[in-house]
């Protein structure tokens, strides 16, 4: 039996716990850590999983999933360093933090796998990208892939691509939410009740995503299929191009990538 401890039970941490339970893991295989006692009690009541301290999690678990915010990583690593060894597998879900950081702060030989998930994990539709560190084996990557498959899809990428992944899919849901928010506002501007506009846009987004996920046609082909000559859609597309929406998206995702790089550099040793 592989024991898994989730260090940090925020939205992503809780979603992973819930997904693993739904996939058939028993409560005896799972642990979590949480700084706030009331939150820990709430999660234990909801899922039956034990909340423990970081040092106990490290002693009892085979896999330690670090799901804290990047700025909170230093105290977690300080607590882990005295109690982990090469038999432990550390899985980092922290945006921007390289495997080299863990390898410097933890005992020699500890295997680390870096993961960039995203928030659709809460509905079992995450997109997670995994990258092995220096001491992680293909078996470690396979184990992490199996765990994360309980809450969505998984791909393996070189760690050099992780900052780009963070900007694209890690932050990606926020871009879609932003677009949907703007389209709902447009519906209200055109005279539709908010509830009607929201229903129209959300279901359109669901349907469009399903066409992309289940079909084989390129997004350009799908867009052109909606774009009739001299019709409503081409007039809308003209306005989007006029206002530089495509260029703005490119710049936004590049800025997110740059911030991911900064987060990693903030933890580089002098």
Automatic annotation (TrEMBL):
It comes from Amycolatopsis alkalitolerans. NADP(+) binds at residues 67-70. The gene is proC. Pathway: Amino-acid biosynthesis; L-proline biosynthesis; L-proline from L-glutamate 5-semialdehyde: step 1/1. GO terms for biological process: L-proline biosynthetic process. This is Pyrroline-5-carboxylate reductase. InterPro entries: 6-PGluconate_DH-like_C_sf, NAD(P)-bd_dom_sf, P5C_Rdtase_cat_N, P5CR-like_CS, P5CR_dimer, Pyrroline-COOH_reductase. Residues 159-263 form the Pyrroline-5-carboxylate reductase dimerisation domain. It catalyses: L-proline + NAD(+) = (S)-1-pyrroline-5-carboxylate + NADH + 2 H(+); L-proline + NADP(+) = (S)-1-pyrroline-5-carboxylate + NADPH + 2 H(+). One of its GO terms (molecular function) is pyrroline-5-carboxylate reductase activity. Belongs to the pyrroline-5-carboxylate reductase family. It is found in: Cytoplasm. Catalyzes the reduction of 1-pyrroline-5-carboxylate (PCA) to L-proline. Residues 3-96 form the Pyrroline-5-carboxylate reductase catalytic N-terminal domain. Its EC number is 1.5.1.2.
């Amino acid at each position: 039996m592989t024991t898994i401890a989730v260090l940090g039970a925020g939205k992503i941490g809780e979603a992973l716990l819930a997904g693993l339970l739904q996939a058939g893991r028993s409560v005896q295989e799972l642990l979590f850590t949480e700084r706030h006692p009331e939150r820990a009690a709430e999660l234990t009541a909801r899922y039956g999983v034990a909340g423990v301290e970081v040092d106990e999690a490290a002693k009892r678990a085979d896999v330690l999933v670090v799901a804290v915010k990047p700025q909170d990583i230093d105290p977690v690593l300080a607590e882990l360093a005295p109690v982990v060894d090469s038999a432990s597998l550390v899985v980092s879900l922290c945006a921007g933090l390289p495997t080299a950081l863990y390898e410097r702060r933890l005992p020699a030989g500890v295997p680390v796998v870096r993961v960039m998930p995203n928030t659709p994990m809460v509905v079992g539709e995450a997109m997670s990208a995994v990258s092995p560190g220096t001491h992680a084996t293909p078996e470690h990557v396979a184990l992490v892939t199996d765990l994360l498959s309980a809450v969505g899809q998984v791909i393996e990428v070189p760690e050099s691509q992780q900052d780009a992944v963070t900007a694209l899919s890690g932050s990606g849901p926020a871009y879609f939410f932003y677009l949907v928010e703007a389209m709902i506002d447009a519906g209200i501007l055109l005279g539709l009740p908010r509830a009607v506009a929201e229903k129209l846009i959300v279901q359109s987004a669901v349907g469009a995503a399903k066409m992309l996920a289940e079909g084989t046609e390129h997004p350009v082909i799908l867009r052109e299929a909606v774009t009739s000559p001299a019709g409503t859609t081409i007039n809308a597309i003209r306005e989007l191009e006029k206002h530089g929406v495509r260029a703005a998206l490119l710049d936004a995702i590049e800025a997110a990538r740059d911030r991911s790089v900064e987060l990693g550099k903030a933890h580089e040793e002098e």
